Amino acid sequence: MSVIATLSQLKVKDVVSWSHYSTINPPNIVEAEIVGFIASNGLRAPETAAANHGNIYSSLPVVNGIVTPNDYTKYDYILLRKQIGVDVGPPATPIYAYYEIGIPWIVPASITRTNRESLILQIDDFDTNRLDAIVRILKNNGFLKYSYKIVGNT
């Protein structure tokens, strides 16, 4: 379930989605995990941040009379990771892309946070010879944190 959030409510490990004021790479964020909040001197790819700043700056609004500095090093960033695939292994491991998004680039009204929960699934009359197929389905769809328990006939 997604809930509307504000920038001040966001924290590390939140899974978020939002829009940007203009086209940057990536164009919008959909279900990415916040890894950290960083100052510009901690950027892993400052050249990408500089290019994105150049592409988006003219579309940034003035907020409460405050103008975003026309210098990508003068504001903070959110470091995100998004799963973009799965290396089926063995063992299966997620493949991530990392993004550094300038906080002024985010349209505040577009922010949503996804609540992650657990699912308990019961399959009655289950043939245990099919367990490998179920595990493969989970892994191929990016579900790498799972457990199961086979309960004998009663």
Layout of SSEs?
Layout: E1 2-4, E2 15-19, E3 28-38, H1 46-56, E4 77-87, E5 93-102, E6 112-114, H2 131-140
Antiparallel strand pairs: 1-6, 2-3, 2-6, 3-4, 4-5
Report on the structure:
With 154 residues, this protein is α+β, with helices and mostly antiparallel strands. The protein has one domain (2-114). Helices cover 14% and strands 28% of the residues. The protein is built from 2 helices and 6 strands; from the N terminus they run E-E-E-H-E-E-E-H. The chain has helices spanning 46-56, 131-140, and strands at residues 2-4, 15-19, 28-38, 77-87, 93-102, 112-114. A 6-stranded antiparallel β-sheet has the order 1-6-2-3-4-5, with no helix packed on it. A hairpin with an 8-residue loop joins strand 2 and strand 3. It is elongated and about 70 Å long. The model has no long low-confidence stretch (mean pLDDT 89).
* Number of individual domains: 1
What would you call the structural class?
alpha+beta
Largest sheet descriptor: 6 strands, antiparallel
> What is the distance, rounded to the nearest whole angstrom, between the alpha carbons of the first and last residues?
36 Å
Q: pLDDT under 50 segments (min length 5)?
A: none
Number of DSSP strand runs: 6
The percentage helix is 10-25%
Strand coverage percent: 25-35%
Query: Can you list the strand order of the major beta sheet?
Result: 1-6-2-3-4-5
Tell me the Rg in angstroms.
Answer: 20 Å
Order of helices and strands: EEEHEEEH
Tell me, rounded to a whole number, the average pLDDT.
89
Shape: elongated
**What's the number of helices?**
2
Oligomer: single chain
